[in-house]
Amino acid sequence: AMEKSYVAMFLLLIVISCALAKDAGKKDTKDTTAKPKLPQTLSRGLFFSSQKPLMIIHHLEDCPHSQALKKVFAEHKEIQKLAEKFILLNLVYETTDKNLAPDGQYVPRVLFIDPSLTVRADITGRYSNRLYAYEPSDISLLYSNMQKALKLLKTEL
């Protein structure tokens, strides 16, 4: 059961890095070495025993936009149901990995990643200058994008 220990280790990394990010935010340090690079960790066999797409939500605790999106996300019954078909990662630190910031490091942003560890550039929000941004009013678009991610996954497997 190698995969299981990787998953545990990976989730632990996320928890640790979230804690680190909170402290780092106060001092505003430029030190990015403490933050794990995601795809490297993922490719060590995180999930592909489970054929679930990954949904990464980048947000920051003190960002009102992030909080607002989080609230509508949590209150949307259909989304909550659909979310069970995803591996959901809430990242509250900024990643140093360029793959996870294809068009910049704004928050909140939502990326869908398929089991081949590819960021789905074909699943985007409605803003051309921030492709993966969603406002609370875009919650139905986010919902249909989650459905799209699952459909794409089924056809490609």
UniProtKB/TrEMBL annotation:
Query: Which subcellular locations apply to this protein?
Result: Endoplasmic reticulum; Secreted
Q: Which GO terms describe its molecular function?
A: dystroglycan binding
GO CC list: endoplasmic reticulum; extracellular region
Tell me which stretches of the chain form a coiled coil. none
Q: Does the keyword Signal apply?
A: yes
Q: Does the keyword Endoplasmic reticulum belong to this entry?
A: yes
UniProt KW keywords: Endoplasmic reticulum, Secreted, Signal
Q: What is its main location?
A: endoplasmic reticulum
Q: Which residues form the signal peptide?
A: 1-21
Against InterPro entries, the record matches this protein to: AGR/TXD, Thioredoxin-like_sf
Family, according to the entry, reads as follows: Belongs to the AGR family.
What this protein is called in its record is AGR2 protein
Q: Which organism is it from?
A: Mohoua ochrocephala
Please name the gene that encodes this protein.
Agr2
